[in-house]
Specification:
By secondary structure, this protein is α/β, with parallel strands linked by helices. It has 14 helices and twelve strands. Helix 2 crosses helix 3. It is elongated and about 105 Å long.
């Protein structure tokens, strides 16, 4: 293809896109009102300047005519410039009447646009622009407790909570009323639908929680929808942290293959609690109290003071006991994920191909997901490292 033919093709494509843009704009009432106002101001400025220039020194320049047109259209009526000729006064009368009508149309268009946007936001139909938010896909009777557990973190970090479900708008407003201190946004729709996830701006979220959904009475909650949602989220945003809640432990393998970062399974500890009521009375009650909202003592993930790096577990325990009136239970270690592609060279060499082929033949993946490991009550001489995150049992209110 010659250069001239290529340029002609590019110009034709650009012209087609511009026509589409202008066609979309022309269908917009607000754009048409603004265009009509600007056209009236410009035409009246030109007309009054032409008819008044020879007999009225107030309109010796086009800028004077434009100022007069704007003042007249907005009904300000400063009176600093006044047409003296009959033709100029006729133009002035037309501008007064037309200006009132066009400004009314403009005000109505703006009001309609704002009201429509508010209604769409209230119904969860608008696309969100929030970032670094926490998305909660699905809704059930336990979600209020989940929101309460997120409350301090969301307020402290200034993040929004985005609810994605199919609840009626009045129920969503009731949820927002119960948690007025939080910035809660709502997206209505099926969270397994890609377009719904796009409206929730999933790609910019910091974490996504997928819960057994009861928001649609016509559809029973199921693990299949949770697994499908995890696949959709990871396909759209592979780096977003996904925490999923399963009802049936047999589906855990499917959710792991969907690359969910963390999995919570219903009734995982119910067997232990039932047995503990017989073998260790008081332990289940202690756990109930510790996990309740009213408990003054909580499990906390704390920031490691630099002064404790290189110290032993015994020394760190003494520090937290005497300095912060808390009990050190252990440490969390965060294991960063990696991809073998990041380690191998960009140029595909023989050794790189050999490594890939051997791993694939062995059924091994080329990447390792990030994860967490917990070390509970390590030996007293355990040396604290820089990446250790203390886990404390501490009071959350003054004694």
């Amino acid at each position: 293809m010659s250069y001239s033919a290529r340029y002609l093709k590019m110009a034709a494509g650009l012209g087609k896109r511009l026509r589409r843009v202008f066609s979309d704009l022309w269908r917009n009432r607000l754009f048409k009102a603004v265009a009509a106002i600007l056209l009236l101001a410009l035409a009246s400025a030109i007309g009054v300047t032409l008819v008044e220039r020879g007999e009225n020194t107030q309109f010796d320049r086009m800028g004077s005519g434009l100022w007069w047109a704007v003042v007249t259209m907005t009904t300000c009526g400063y009176g600093d410039k006044v047409p003296l000729t009959t033709a100029g006064r006729i133009i002035g009368a037309v501008v007064m009447i037309s200006g009132v009508v066009l400004l009314s149309v403009f005000t109505a268009a703006v009001s309609s646009s704002v009201i429509t946007r508010r209604m769409m936001e209230g119904r969860g139909l608008s696309k969100l622009s929030v970032k670094n938010h926490v998305a909660m896909l699905g809704w059930n009777s336990g979600c209020d407790a989940v929101i309460h557990s997120l409350r301090e973190s969301l307020i402290h970090e200034g993040r929004a909570l985005v609810l994605v479900n199919q609840l009626p708008p009045d129920e969503v407003e009731a949820i927002k009323a119960r948690h007025r201190e939080l910035s809660i946004k709502y997206v209505h729709g099926d969270f397994t639908d890609e377009s719904v996830l796009q409206r929730a701006n999933i790609v910019a979220a910091s974490a996504v929680m997928i819960l057994p959904d009861e928001s649609n009475a016509a559809r029973a909650k199921s693990d299949e929808r949770t697994i499908l949602a995890a696949l959709e989220v990871k396909a759209a945003a592979p780096k977003v942290r996904v925490i999923a809640h399963l009802m049936d432990p047999q589906n855990q393998g499917h959710l792991e293959r969907a690359n969910a970062d963390e999995i919570v399974i219903s009734d995982r500890f119910s067997g232990y609690l039932l047995g503990a009521h017989v073998t260790a009375p008081g332990i289940p009650q202690l756990l109930d109290l510790l996990l309740s909202e009213a408990c003054p003592v909580s499990l906390l993930r704390a920031k490691l003071p630099h002064s404790l790096i290189g110290k032993t577990f015994r020394q760190a325990s003494d520090h937290y006991h005497h300095q912060e009136r808390s009990l050190l239970l252990g440490f969390i270690q965060e294991e960063a994920g990696f991809k073998l592609e990041d380690i191998l060279s960009d140029d595909v060499s023989a050794i790189d191909r050999f490594i890939r082929e051997k791993l694939q033949a062995a059924g091994k993946g080329l990447s390792k997901r990030s994860g967490l490991s917990v070390q509970l009550l390590p030996p007293a001489d355990y040396v604290i490292r820089e990446n250790d995150i203390p886990v404390l049992l501490a009071r959350t209110e003054k004694a």
